[in-house]
Design brief:
Helix 3 packs parallel to helix 4 and helix 4 packs parallel to helix 6. This protein has one domain: NAD(P)-binding Rossmann-like Domain (Rossmann fold). It has a 7-stranded parallel β-sheet with strand order 3-2-1-4-5-6-7, sandwiched between helices. The chain has 9 helices and 7 strands. The protein binds nicotinamide-adenine-dinucleotide (NAD). Nicotinamide-adenine-dinucleotide binds next to helix 1 and helix 7.
C-alpha cells in the first residue's frame, strides 16, 4: 500500500485509456479522489465507473488543447472535490489522435509537426497553467508529466517532431520545478520506453515478427513495458515517498536508455 494520504484530489488527463487509466487503477485502493479527463468523454466515464469507487472518481469530457475547456476542467475538479492536490498529464503520442506517424524529416508534414507539438507539449503547458493557481491555493501539490525515451535519447518508432516535443516536456518540467519549489509544488516526469497501452498494442500487433525483434533486441529486458509499470513510477512521484524530489525525469524503459 502506498503511503499516500486518503482523500487526495488528483486530476488525470488522458484518463480513459493507457497510462492515465492505469494510474487511476493504482490510486483507487489508496483512497484518492480522481477526475479522469479525456477527449473521449464516454471512455473517461466508463474508466471512472470501472474503478468501483463510486463518486470518488468521475470522468470528464475535455479536449486538453482547448484553453477554455482546460480551465473548466480544473474549475469542475475543485467544485466537485473542494480542492486540487495533483495533476497528472498523460495525453500525448507519436501517432494516432490525428497525427501521422512520420519518422523522417522528409516524410514529416508541417501540419503534423504542429499537431505533435500541441498534443505532447502545449497540452502540458495549458493544463499546468490552469492547475497551478488551484495547487497554490491548496498550499502545494504535485505535477507529473509524461515524456518518452524519444525525448531522452532518440526514437526508433517516432520521428523528430515527437523527440522534440518529449524533450520539451523534460525542459518544461525542470523549469516549472525550479519556479514552483517555493510554492511547495513538485514537478516531475516519467519517460516510458515502448509500452503496451491499447494504442501501442494495436500498432504492435500489426508489425511483422522481424520488425518486432528489431525493436526488442535493443531493449536489454527484451520486452515492451506494461502500462502498470509506468503508472507505478507516476504514483511514486504522487506519493509521500517523493517529498524531496523535483525536476526529475524517471526513465521506465527496460534499460533501453540509461542516463
Ligand atoms: N505507450 C507507449 O509506448 C509510450 C512510450 C513513450 C511515451 N508514451 C507517452 O505516454 C503517454 C500515454 O501514452 P499511452 O500509450 O498510454 O496513450 P493512449 O493513446 O493509450 O492514451 C491517451 C489518451 O489521451 C486521450 N487524448 C488524446 N488526445 C486528447 C486531447 N486532445 N484531449 C484529451 N484527451 C486526449 C485519448 O483519448 C486517450 O484516452 C503519452 O504522452 C505518450 O506519448 C507512451
Amino acid at each position: 500500500m502506498l503511503p499516500f494520504t486518503e482523500g487526495k484530489v488528483i486530476l488525470i488527463t488522458g484518463g480513459a485509456l493507457g497510462l492515465g487509466r492505469a494510474t487511476a487503477k493504482l490510486l483507487a485502493p489508496v483512497g484518492a479522489r480522481m477526475v479522469l479527463a479525456d477527449r473521449d468523454g464516454e471512455g473517461a466515464r466508463r474508466a471512472a465507473a470501472e474503478l468501483g469507487v463510486g463518486d470518488r472518481a468521475v470522468g470528464l469530457e475535455v479536449n486538453v488543447l482547448d484553453w477554455p475547456q482546460v480551465q473548466g476542467m480544473v474549475e469542475e475538479t475543485v467544485r466537485r472535490f473542494g480542492r486540487l492536490d495533483a495533476l497528472v498529464n498523460t495525453v500525448g503520442g507519436s501517432s494516432g489522435h490525428g497525427v501521422k506517424g512520420a519518422r523522417t524529416i522528409e516524410e514529416l508534414e508541417i501540419a503534423d509537426w504542429d499537431r505533435t507539438m500541441e498534443l505532447n507539449l502545449k497540452s502540458v503547458f495549458l493544463c499546468c497553467r490552469a492547475a497551478i493557481p488551484a495547487l497554490r491555493a491548496n498550499g502545494g501539490g504535485r505535477i507529473v508529466n509524461t515524456s518518452s525515451v524519444a525525448g531522452r535519447s532518440q526514437s526508433q518508432l517516432g520521428g523528430p517532431q515527437y523527440a522534440a516535443a518529449k524533450a520539451g516536456v523534460v525542459g518544461f518540467t525542470r523549469q516549472l520545478a525550479f519556479q514552483l519549489a517555493a510554492d511547495n509544488i513538485t514537478v516531475n516526469a516519467v519517460a516510458p520506453g515502448p509500452s503496451l497501452s491499447e494504442r501501442v498494442t494495436a500498432i504492435w500487433d500489426k508489425r511483422s515478427e522481424e520488425s518486432r525483434q528489431e525493436v526488442l533486441t535493443r531493449i536489454p529486458m527484451h520486452r515492451l513495458g506494461e502500462v502498470d509499470e509506468l503508472a507505478a513510477a507516476v504514483c511514486y512521484f504522487l506519493s509521500d515517498l517523493a517529498t524531496y524530489t523535483t525536476g526529475h525525469t524517471l526513465d521506465v524503459n527496460g534499460g533501453l536508455y540509461m542516463d
